[in-house]
């Protein structure tokens, strides 16, 4: 009888062990699934930012200069290669936009990518040309920067090597930014539309085109978002708009619905496939036009708070 009791005890112990082991395995699988979902959410956020807000994909792809708003050429996402040279107004030399697909970044660490984005220093320690908007992206929150980097890692690798830059002036005159810690940046609560809108406008580097600049390319005090900067590109030239809430020369008469509609209309396929010739624009509607309504509302709310500047702008001068 004792013998049977002994074997029965072993059987019960084995059953308990199996149950405990099974529970432990389920817990591990749940934890793994949670991490995987978290990573997917991060990459999805990074994709949205890289396409619609921060615009990494816009600059680092081949663009079709014949079509409205210079949409990207499919299949070139992140491969870079667009040449900037003397034909662009005031450009001091010649350089090619770098390849940021995994094939181009190679063994760059996340920290090195973050330093390039927020301070303008590449892996070798060289200063980047400020067309890379590190002066604005140094305000990006750590969680958003990590999301962008995570997404960039998922781009299709494109083996494409570009020629070295040939500049007329030392790159050191353009930066880099002094030591700073983007990890201290805080993303505003989305419920605070004005603050969150300011954050989006900053990391979307809207001021790069819309802050009125001197002939030397420096922002003019008191002319924030007043536009008036002319960009000469082959085969057209265009002047940036005044997006302050001035009622006569800016967007003061625009409602929130009109503001959103402008983005949606200009990002419509029929417009992006059109060929406007010399009446084109460098405003990347095909990218910014895919922002969510809530983000566009936040941007609109913020732009209503900046100083109204009366500055009439003639978009095309021919």
Structural description of this entry:
This protein is mainly alpha-helical and 318 residues long. The protein has helices at residues 2-53, 56-59, 102-105, 110-119, 134-137, 142-152, 193-203, 207-210, 256-266, 269-272, 285-288, 293-303; strands at 83-84, 93-96, 166-167, 230-233, 236-239. The strands form two sheets. It has a three-stranded antiparallel beta sheet with strand order 1-2-3, with no helix packed on it. A two-stranded antiparallel sheet has the order 4-5. A hairpin with a 2-residue loop joins strand 4 and strand 5. The relative contact order is 0.13.
User: Percent range for helical residues?
Assistant: 40-55%
Strand content: 5-15%
Total strand segments: 5
Strand arrangement, largest sheet?
A: 1-2-3
Radius of gyration: 25 Å
What is the string of helix and strand elements? HHEEHHHHEHHEEHHHH
In short:
The protein has 318 residues and is mainly α. It contains twelve helices and five strands.
Task: Compile the SSE list and pairings.
Blueprint: H1 2-53, H2 56-59, E1 83-84, E2 93-96, H3 102-105, H4 110-119, H5 134-137, H6 142-152, E3 166-167, H7 193-203, H8 207-210, E4 230-233, E5 236-239, H9 256-266, H10 269-272, H11 285-288, H12 293-303
Antiparallel strand pairs: 1-2, 2-3, 4-5
Helix pairs in contact: 1-6, 7-12
Q: Which key features would you list for this structure?
A:
318 residues; 41% helix; 2 domains; globular; two-stranded antiparallel sheet; mainly alpha; 3-stranded antiparallel beta sheet; 5 strands
